C-alpha cells in the first residue's frame, strides 16, 4: 500500500496521492503569487510575513526546495506588479528588497525579474535627475568617452537599419541584450548564436541574458516585407551614454549626439531614431526593449 506524497498517509493501491491533498497543494501554489503581491501595500513586518507564508505552505504540503521556488515566484510577481508602468516607487523597492533578504532569495538571480527591477530603478534615477551608478565595460572593444561622459546601458546583438528607398517606418524581429554593474562590449564581431556566451550583457550580480536566436544578420523572408525600404547597416553593440547613442559593428560605426535626436519612435521590436537635418538620416535599431530605450534617451536629454 503506497503513501500519499503530500500528507504521508496511506493513499490506496497503486495511488500516489489523495485527490483532496493534491487539490489543497495546487490551490495554494496558485494563490502564492497574489499573496506576495498584496505585501507591497502591507504594514506587516517581513518576519511575520515569512511565518505566515510558512504556515500556509505547511498546510498545503509545500516543503523544502518547492517552498523556496514558490517564494521566488511570489517575488517575481511583486516585481512585475511594482514595475508595470516601467517605474518603481522607492517604498515598493524597499518592500521587495527587505522581503527577498528575509526569504534568503537573490533578486538578481530571478530570471527576467532582476533585470526588470534594475531598469525601473535606472529610469527612476533619471527622472530624479541622477545618473546610474558607475558601469564597468567588459569585452574586446574600448569605447572612447568624452570627459564627464558615462555609459548608461549596453544592448548586445543589435541590428541597425537605415532608410534605403523610402522614409517608411519599420518593425523587425528581436534580439537581446544591468546596481553597480559590468556590461560587455562585443563590437566588431560577427553575430553570435544563442549558445555563444560571449555575446551577452554581463551585469555584476545580475543573471546573464541569452541573445535571441538568429542565424545571420540578414532578415528572413518574413522580415523582408516588414523591412522594405530599409538597408541593413550591420549588427553589433548599441551603447547609450549620457551624451551619445553609439552603434559599433564590423561594418558600421555611428555616434549620434543625444541633443541631435528630435524624436524616438518605439515599435514592438525596434526603435526608430529621428535626427535633425544636419546630423544625418534616421536609423532603426532592433533592441530587446524598445520602450525602455526610448524612455531612457528621452530622460537623458532632459538632464
Number of domains: 2
Following the backbone from N to C, one meets helices and strands in this order, namely: EEHHHHHEEEHEEEEEEH
Spatially, the strands of the biggest sheet line up as 8-7-6-4-11-10-9
Q: Could you say what the CATH topology of the largest domain is called?
A: PH-domain like
Known CATH architecture of the largest domain = Roll
Average residue-wise pLDDT? 79
Beta-strand content bin:
15-25%
| Count of strand segments | 11
User: Considering the protein shown, what is the CATH homologous superfamily of the largest domain?
Assistant: Pleckstrin-homology domain (PH domain)/Phosphotyrosine-binding domain (PTB)
In words, what does this structure look like?
By secondary structure, this protein is of the alpha+beta class. The protein folds into two domains: 2-105, no CATH class; 135-300, PH-domain like (Roll). The chain is 32% helix and 21% strand. It has helices at 19-37, 46-59, 64-82, 90-103, 113-127, 221-226, 290-300; strands spanning 2-3, 10-12, 135-138, 151-163, 181-184, 230-241, 244-249, 253-257, 261-266, 271-275, 283-286. The protein has a seven-stranded antiparallel β-sheet, covered by helices on one side. Strand 9 (261-266) and strand 10 (271-275) form a beta hairpin. Helix 1 runs parallel beside helix 3. The longest helix has 19 residues, at 19-37. The chain is elongated and about 80 Å long. 36% of the residues are buried.
Short description:
The protein has 303 residues and is an alpha+beta fold.
Amino acid at each position: 500500500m503506497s503513501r500519499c506524497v503530500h500528507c504521508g498517509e496511506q493513499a490506496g493501491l497503486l495511488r500516489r496521492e489523495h485527490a483532496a491533498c493534491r487539490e489543497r497543494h495546487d490551490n495554494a501554489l496558485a494563490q502564492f503569487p497574489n499573496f506576495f503581491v498584496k505585501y507591497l501595500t502591507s504594514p506587516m513586518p517581513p518576519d511575520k510575513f515569512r511565518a505566515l507564508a510558512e504556515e500556509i505552505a505547511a498546510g498545503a504540503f509545500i516543503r523544502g526546495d518547492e517552498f523556496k521556488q514558490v517564494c521566488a515566484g511570489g517575488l517575481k510577481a511583486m516585481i512585475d506588479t511594482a514595475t508595470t508602468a516601467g517605474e518603481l516607487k522607492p517604498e515598493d523597492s524597499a518592500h521587495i528588497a527587505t522581503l527577498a533578504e528575509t526569504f534568503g532569495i537573490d533578486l538578481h538571480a530571478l530570471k527576467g525579474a532582476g533585470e526588470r527591477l534594475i531598469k525601473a530603478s535606472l529610469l527612476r534615477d533619471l527622472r530624479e535627475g541622477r545618473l546610474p551608478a558607475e558601469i564597468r565595460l567588459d569585452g574586446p572593444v574600448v569605447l572612447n568617452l568624452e570627459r564627464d561622459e558615462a555609459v548608461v546601458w549596453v544592448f548586445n546583438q543589435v541590428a541597425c537599419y537605415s532608410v534605403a528607398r523610402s522614409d517608411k517606418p519599420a518593425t523587425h524581429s528581436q534580439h537581446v541584450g544591468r546596481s553597480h554593474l559590468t556590461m560587455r562590449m562585443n563590437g566588431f564581431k560577427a553575430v553570435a548564436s544563442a549558445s555563444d556566451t560571449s555575446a551577452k550583457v554581463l551585469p555584476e550580480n545580475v543573471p546573464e541574458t541569452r541573445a535571441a536566436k538568429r542565424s545571420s544578420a540578414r532578415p528572413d523572408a518574413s522580415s523582408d516585407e516588414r523591412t522594405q525600404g530599409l538597408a541593413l547597416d550591420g549588427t553589433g553593440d548599441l551603447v547609450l551614454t549620457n551624451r551619445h547613442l553609439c552603434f559599433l559593428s564590423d561594418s558600421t560605426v555611428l555616434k549620434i549626439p543625444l541633443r541631435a535626436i528630435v524624436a524616438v519612435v518605439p515599435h514592438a521590436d525596434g526603435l526608430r531614431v529621428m535626427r535633425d537635418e544636419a546630423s544625418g538620416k534616421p536609423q532603426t535599431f532592433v533592441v530587446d526593449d524598445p520602450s525602455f530605450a526610448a524612455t531612457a534617451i528621452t530622460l537623458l536629454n532632459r538632464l
